[in-house]
C-alpha cells in the first residue's frame, strides 16, 4: 500500500537522548512507523507488528504504531534517526539540508525483524565493521 512519508522529532525521542543510542529504549522510540488507525486496519497490522517501509532509496523494518496525531489516512510518520536515514535521500540540492517530508513510501506487513542500531549501521557500511565496533 502506498503512503506519503513525513519525519520529524518526537517528545519521546527527546527524552531518550540522555540514554545511549545503542539502547533498546532508543530503538523503541525511533524504529517505529506511526499510522492512522484505518490504514493499520486496511493493512491488517496491529500495534507492535513489524512493517517494511520501502522508498526509492531503500527499505527498513520498523514497528507499527497507531498514531493519535495523524488525522488523514495515507500518511505515515517515522521519527528522525538512523532508521529513517536508510530510506531518505542524502542529497541537499545546495540547501545544506536533505528533504524530509512528502516522500512516496510503500508499507507492508513483514515477519522480518527490526535491526538494532549496530546491525543497521553494518548494513549501511558493509565490510567496514572494524571502523564501527570491535567484537
Stretches with pLDDT under 50, minimum 5 residues: none
Q: Strand sequence of the main sheet, in spatial order?
A: 1-5-2-4-3-6
The number of domains: 1
Overall mean pLDDT = 84
How many β-strand runs? 6
Distance between the termini: 39 Å
Q: What is the CATH architecture assignment?
A: Beta Barrel
- Tell me which oligomeric state these chains represent: single chain
Shape designation: globular
Give the ordered list of helices and strands.
EHHEHEEEHEHH
Q: Which percent range fits the helix content?
A: 25-40%
Helix-strand makeup class? alpha/beta
Helix tally equals: 6
CATH topology: Barwin-like endoglucanases
Q: Any chance you could write out the topology, listing elements then pairs?
A:
Elements: E1 2-8, H1 11-15, H2 24-30, E2 32-35, H3 37-43, E3 50-54, E4 59-66, E5 75-79, H4 82-85, E6 101-109, H5 117-125, H6 129-132
Parallel strand pairs: 1-5, 2-4
Antiparallel strand pairs: 1-6, 2-5, 3-4, 3-6
